[in-house]
Amino acid sequence: MFMTREMVRVRRRSTGSSIAEFGPALWLLLICIFFPLLDLMSMLVSYGCCMVLNNIQVHEASLTKWTDAMSSTGPIIKALPDQWKAAGFGQYVKMVGDPQTTVSYRQGQTGSDQITDKIVIVQTTVTCSPFLPIPIPAVNVPGLNGPMTFNIVAERPVENPDYGQP
After folding, report:
1. Global pTM?
2. Which strand (E) or helix (H) includes residue 126?
3. Going by C-beta distance under 8 Å and a sequence separation of 6 or more, which residues neighbour residue 38?
4. Which residue of 32, 45, 47, 151 is 20 to 30 Å from 116, comparing CA positions?
5. CB under 8 Å to 72, separation ≥6 — which residues?
6. Cα(65)–Cα(164) distance, rounded to whole angstroms?
7. What is the SS3 string spanning the chain?
């Protein structure tokens, strides 16, 4: 069915209410849906980047001697996080302070030849800020308007049992 101009004008309201409602609706959609989703996606990326750091640290700790791995100026606690922040995935993370790392060892299962496995445990704690803090009055929501702390723990068998802590 073909509509004439007069019929279209009759159906369209002349008050402009649809245009007047668009501004508040857009503001509500941006504040309640788009920006929180953007912040949560940035927290997801930050968590993934911190997982990469922890996996690199636990891999390197399984290959190095326990004295070097537990040293506060060694490759696991100091060098790897510094490289990760400067030229790695750490440049995509909005951190509050530096990553905190602890290295510990535990005994594993005894094999058939009576050599006890050593297992290294690396715990990395990183506090990240949201990409775009959303002003929510009187409420501090981690990841939306406050920093969120990620505590990541991984363990791996030490490649050379002599490198494990006695």
Report:
1. 0.81
2. strand 116-128
3. 131, 132
4. 151
5. 78
6. 7
7. CCCCHHHHHHHCCCCCHHHHHHHHHHHHHHHHHHHHHHHHHHHHHHHHHHHHHHHHHHHHHHHCCHHHHCCCCCHHHHHHHHHHHHHCHHHHCCECCCCEEEEEEEEEEECCCCCEEEEEEEEEEEEECCCCCCCCCCCCCECCCECEEEEEEEEEECCCHHHCCC
Nearest residue to 145 (alpha-carbon basis) of 39, 61, 68: 39
pLDDT, tens digit (0-9, with 9 covering 90-100), for 21-74? 777 888 888 888 898 999 999 999 999 999 999 999 999 999 999 999 999 999
- Token couple for 33: 């849906």
